[in-house]
C-alpha cells in the first residue's frame, strides 16, 4: 500500500512563529502523501484574554461557551490559513480544512450530564474519500481543531483525537504512519535526564501506567495512539517537532508505538 | 454552456448574524453550480480595536500593517469557516478557501511608490482548473478576501475584485452570472426615493458618471463589473442581499450590467 504520513503539531511550535517556520521547512521536505493536523497552542487563551473573554475551566477542563467558540474559530482558522500560505511558499501545494469543509469530519456536540463542556465536538468518523480526492489534486490537507455538528455550528475538537481519527480513516487505503510532535524528544522514562522509551507495545502499556512511568498528559495521547493502531494504523511515533525530518530515517530517536 | 452563479457579499449581511443566516438560507436554494465570495464587513475594524490595534488610514485608504494582517486573517478565515458550517447545516456541501488554498488565486503584494498599503494583494489570475475540480466534488467554494504572495505571506485583498477575477477565470468553461449583493436595492438614480437603474450598458456608463448619477463607492464596483464583462462574464447583477432568491427569476428588480 502507498505510504501516508499524518503529522500532528501543537504547543510551543504553534506559539512561536520562528519555531513554526523551522518545523514547516522540514515538514515540506517529507516525501509522498501527507496530512498536517494542528491545534491552537496557547494562542487561543492569550487572544481570548486580549479580546476580554476570560478562559473558563471546570475541574481543569476548558469550557467552550458561545464567546469562546467565536474566538477559538478565528484563531484556529486564521492559523490554518497562515500555515497553508507558508507551505505554498515552500512549494507544497496545500489546502486548509476544518471538519466542516467538504464535511471531512463528522462529529456531534459532546453530551455530558455532569459537566457541560459547551461547543466541543466528539468525532463520529472521517470522510476518507473526500480527503483522498484532495490529495489526488497533489495537495497536502492542513486540518485545524474545528469540527461541526452538521446543523451549522462549529465545535472545538481535540487535535490529538482528530489526528488519530484521520489516520484511522485513511488506513483502509494507505500504509499510515501517525506522528505526534511535541516539546519532548519522545515518551520519557526519566523526565530529568530526558531518557526516551524507544518502543511501547500494547502488552507493556498497562505496566508502564501502573508503575507511574507514563502518567498525566501522556496517557490520553498514547490512548489515542493505540486506538489508531487497533483500528489499522501501522505505527504511531511520538517525537520532538525538531525531529520531524527523521521520522522515516534510521536515526529516528523518538518513541515508536506499535501493536507488538 | 453550464450556468455558474458567482455571488459576492459584504457589509451589513456580514456584520449581523441574523442577516447572514437569512441570506445563506436563500443562497443555499440557488440551483446549479455556485461560488460565494465574502468580505469582512465592519467586523475587522471592530475586532481590531478590541485587540488594541487601531485601524490605520492614509488618504482614506486602509493600511494593512503587520498587526492588521494578523487580525484580518483571523477574522476573514474565522468567518469563512462559520459560513461553511452554516451552509453544511443547510445541506450545501461547501469548502472554504483563501487564495492560498490550492493556490486558487495568484497575487502579489501591491507595489505603490507613493503610499505603502502594506500587506495588500493585487490579483494576477485565478486557477480555474482547481476551482472546477472542487465544484466537481459537488462543493460550493466559499472564498474569503485573503490571497497570498506565493512566498508564505497572506495578503488582504478586495472582495469585489476577487469576485470579478473569479467570475472572469471561470467564464471560459461556464456561462457566468456575477452578482454583487449589498444594502441597496441596486444602483440608484435617486438615493432618497431608492429608484433603481434597471440596466447599465457600457456606452451609457461614462454619461452616468459625468452627470454624477453614479459616484463614489459605486464606481469601483461597476468598474469591476465591466472588467468582468469585457473578459467574458455574461452579465453582472447588483442587488440587495435580500433579493438573492430572485437573481434568476422574472421578478428580479435590481440592476443588470451588460455589454449592450
Description:
The structure is a homodimer of 260-residue chains. The first copy, chain A, is α/β, with parallel strands linked by helices. The first copy, chain A, has 8 helices and 16 strands. Chain A has helices spanning 12-15, 17-28, 43-50, 66-89, 128-135, 159-170, 202-210, 218-230, and strands spanning 3-9, 33-38, 56-58, 61-63, 94-97, 105-109, 121-126, 140-144, 146-148, 154-156, 175-182, 188-190, 195-196, 199-201, 235-240, 255-258. In chain A, strand 3 and strand 4 (61-63) form a beta hairpin. The two termini of chain A are 20 Å apart. At the A-B interface, helix 4 and strand 5 of A face helix 4 and strand 5 of B. Chains A, B: This is Acetylglutamate kinase. Chains A, B: Residues 3-239 form the Aspartate/glutamate/uridylate kinase domain. Chains A, B: It catalyses: N-acetyl-L-glutamate + ATP = N-acetyl-L-glutamyl 5-phosphate + ADP. Chains A, B: InterPro entries: AceGlu_kinase-like_sf, AcgluKinase_fam, Asp/Glu/Uridylate_kinase.
